[in-house]
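Please complete every field before forwarding. Incomplete forms are returned to the sender.

SECTION A: IDENTIFIERS
Entry label: holo-286
Bound molecule: S-adenosylmethionine
Molecule representation: SMILES string

SECTION B: INPUTS
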Amino acid sequence: MRIRPAYYSPLRHVRQLIRLFVYATMSAMSRPHSYDPIARYYDQAHGEIEEDIGMMQTFAQETGGPILEVGVGTGRVALPLAQAGYDVVGVDSSQEMLEMAARRQQGMSLDNRVKWVQADFRDFELDSRFPLIYCAYNTFLHLIDEQDQLNALRCWRRHLQPDGHLVLDVENPELFAITEADGSIELSASYEDEETGNLVHVLRSGWADFADQVIKMNIFYDEVDAEGVVRRIATTFPMRILFRRELSLLLRMAGFERLNFFGDHQLSPWQSDSPRLIVAARPTKR
Ligand SMILES: C[S@@+](CC[C@H](N)C(=O)[O-])C[C@H]1O[C@@H](n2cnc3c(N)ncnc32)[C@H](O)[C@@H]1O
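SECTION C: PREDICTED COMPLEX
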């Protein structure tokens, strides 16, 4: 027989559980999307990155459109593709990132070539089937557990035309850099905010958990006003450490074959010390 402490009351226990459940649900509902708070800063910190755009254009020339980008963000890659004449659909779950994309689109005469869809990319349903679907700039690493990775890949496969291409572009894990991810904070960029003229410092801290193959990332945007007062916007998200063999296995489990691995945005063959882990895969024949 278990001895309960004197203050044990089953009713209180149930009430506590209900409170915990309500708290967990409320905080999950009210917790902002990881990208919502930083959407305003995203383009100024990452908007200049262009090296992957040419690569996606090469794939687009091979496949034609329409093109689907999952995790489209502010349209950094999708908009140049639309400007090059392709019809593009961009899916993202962050309303703020999509608003930035729509704002960025203003002034570009794209007719109706771009469509923004707010949805979770692990499970959505669109009417169209695409010859090219891509997931750029480490976005696939936001999926931490295998079930989410497989759900997403299967969902994207359903949206591919029978001989379409799926392209994923993630960082090639570098063990040395990962072992250095010990939580220390480093300054990764500083720039003048275009709207306010304030100085913004971008600080990052990564904490590697080898057992779970995850790096817990904390990103801080410190905006310093004219009086020197700092306003900090912080976000945190885990990033999966993903190796080539595991990615290959996931893709095969999700119904892909003819996997071609590349090691950089010039599409050089992948090697163990390549900077990128880029894969182009085709759906298996049904
Ligand atoms: C690293 S950003 C990349 C944005 C853009 N593709 C680029 O290359 O600049 C990742 C994007 O994925 C989105 N995202 C993360 N998890 C998502 C999910 N489960 N469903 C839909 N979008 C998601 C985020 O909101 C964010 O906009």
